[in-house]
């Protein structure tokens, strides 16, 4: 399963919202803010908030991605 499928299936998001999540996720990756963490820690939150102080959608995107990865790992 891909992140986009997870968002559609588990959070019942429309394609436009999924595309917004994917765009934010790519931005997080391009800026090097995520390094494979498996927990949504206060330091990770602080890193994202420093880069995107006015947009809580980036925190939510990161949280949902980590949840997605943890769910995949549990099924393996």
Topology:
Layout: H1 3-11, H2 15-30, H3 42-51, H4 56-75
Helix pairs in contact: 1-2, 2-4
Description:
The protein has four helices and no strands. The protein has 76 residues and is an all-alpha fold. Helix 1 (3-11) packs across helix 2 (15-30) and helix 2 packs across helix 4. It starts with a helix and ends with a helix.
**Most strands sheet:** none
> Percent of residues in helical segments?
over 70%
**Which regions have little confidence, pLDDT < 50, spanning 5+ residues?**
none
Report the count of strand segments: 0
- Provide the structure class: mainly alpha
Rg on CA atoms, Å? 12 Å
Q: Termini distance?
A: 12 Å
Global outline: globular
Quick summary:
It contains four helices and no strands. By secondary structure, it is mainly α.
Keywords:
single chain, 76 residues, mainly alpha, 4 helices, 0% strand
């Amino acid at each position: 399963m891909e992140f986009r499928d997870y968002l559609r299936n588990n959070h019942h998001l429309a394609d436009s919202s999924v595309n917004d999540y994917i765009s934010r996720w790519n931005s997080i990756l391009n800026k090097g803010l995520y390094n494979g963490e498996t927990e949504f820690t206060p330091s990770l939150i602080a890193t994202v908030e420093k880069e995107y102080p006015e947009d809580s959608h980036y925190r939510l995107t990161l949280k949902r991605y980590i949840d997605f990865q943890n769910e995949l790992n549990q099924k393996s």
